[in-house]
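Problem: given the chain below (102 residues), write out its structure.
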Amino acid sequence: MTSTTGARVRRTPAPWWIAALCGIPLIFGFVGAQASKGAIQDDLTERAQQVLQGVGASDATVRFDGRDATLRTADGADTTRARDALAKMSGVRTVVVQGSAQ
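Solution.
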């Protein structure tokens, strides 16, 4: 006859379970951040074009990589007002001027 004491053996969770608990939210967060990056860049580009038209630099173009702006102007154009206006925009981190004397 075998005796049973009713004691349960407690085991630690498997390492893959812990990794899944931590990794899945990180993956979804990364994917969500990448998906919203394009929308943020599009919004900044649209607002920046309006700002450039407002300061009289409608011939200038702006491109965003995240929150970093790259301003392209014609050679010899005065870029100070355009650069300053873009730098003051909400959401813009840096402004780099290309195509003219800085």
